[in-house]
Amino acid sequence: MNERVKIFLDGDMLERYLMDTTSPMESKEVEYYIEKYPEVKKTYIELQENLEEYATSFAVPAPVELKDKILQQVQSRPKPAIPFLAITACAATILFGIMTFMIWRQNQELLDDRRLTTELIEDLNNDIVSNRQTLQSVEEQFMILNNSSTEKYVLRGNTRARKLETVAYVNMLEKKSYVHVVALPELPDDQVYQMWAGVDGQMIPLDILKITKENLVEIPYEERMASLNITIEPKGGSKEATVDNLVANISF
Amino acid sequence: MKPFIEQHIIELLKAQDERAIGLLYDHYADALFGVAIKVTKDEALAQDVLQESFVKIWKNASKYDATKARLFTWLFRVVQNTAIDAVRSRQRKKTKEIQIEDSNVYHIQSSKFAIEHLDIASHAAGLEDKYRVVIDALFFQGMTQQEASDELNIPLGTVKSRLKIGLRELRKLFGLVIVFLSI
């Protein structure tokens, strides 16, 4: 037998554990020995059997009526475990419900935040694309304007539109043309200013002039363009120029 | 006690099924009543102890751990402690002493529980007094081995050896076969 086990069994801790007179620390120690050493477990089982046998040898018939009294007493007692369990279960359920609702709300808020963030990122991406396009356009315009082959033409209004001032940039080599509408006198709602290119004696429609945020607006380029003209046309523009309504022109 | 019945009672107790108390009474009341009488030496008081013990058993059923003690061991402890408390309470009433230490219960003079005053079952009479006194002190008076040594005025080593030999002799007397549980 293990010396340690022998020393343990020689002591009285196991007997005291049987009689429930050990301290909590001692009980832990005894339970450790019982679990670890089969000899200790066997001895403990023997002790319990002996206790039962010895106690039973002094058995005295218990009064029959006492059983009924005990049963009545037990039945009349409320079962504390059930209400407690029920209350605990209710409390746990309510708590769980509140927690679930809070987590759901938090989740919804996070989802909203995520959606907003996604939209913001999309907007930013669109802005980036737009800015790139603008930058590219500005760079192109800058290239055109700084190109030595680009010609600048200033169209000023006649008596019918004195305040009209538009600058046209034409690059014959690149085949690009831009206008910068500086000022346009007001017109009735059913009329617009339309720009035309003079090509081989014909007036080719280019674009309807508007004041825009952009300084330069590209307009269609026409080969053999000999002049630029601005007329007042009905709203939506015309296919053929109303020469009587010519308010500005410049020949190249 | 049949293991099946014991297991069934434990399950009923855990489930707070009142049938457990009826079964417990049917199978254990006589032995526990004997314990209560041995400790209190008063049948009327022992009845009160038994009744109170069964209520305690019912209320504390959830605390019983079958892995730590057999059912009878747990029941015995409940009855023993209830009986010792009852004796203590009765002594207080009788003597009306102001200062009575709790440990008095465990230090009851051995003469009060001397074997010659106890109603001992005939089949236990074959055990020599020197062993029986030690076993009674430890099992029915709630003494530790050291306390038994002091009270019975015998060395601690003798208490230990008499307990071990006494238990071995008991097994011979009862002629019971001890079945060791597999580990």
Task: Give an account of the 3D structure.
The complex is a heterodimer of chains A (252) and B (183). Chain A is α+β, with helices and mostly antiparallel strands and 252 residues long. Among the domains of chain A are: 3-64, no CATH class; 150-251. Helix content of chain A is 50%, strand content 23%. Chain A is built from six helices and eight strands. Chain A has a four-stranded antiparallel β-sheet, with helices on one face. In chain A, strands 5-4-7-8 form a four-stranded antiparallel β-sheet, with no helix packed on it. Chain B has 183 residues and is mainly alpha-helical. Chain B folds into two domains: 1-105, RNA polymerase sigma factor, region 2, helix turn helix motif (Rna Polymerase Sigma Factor, Chain: A); 107-183, Orthogonal Bundle (Arc Repressor Mutant, subunit A). In chain B, α5 crosses α7 and α6 (145-152) crosses α7. Chain B is globular, with a radius of gyration of 17 Å. The two termini of chain B are 20 Å apart. Chain B has helices at 3-14, 19-40, 43-59, 71-95, 129-139, 145-152, 156-174. Mean pLDDT of chain B is 77; it is low at 100-123 and 176-183. At the A-B interface, α2, α4 and α5 of A face α2, α3, α4, α5 and α7 of B.
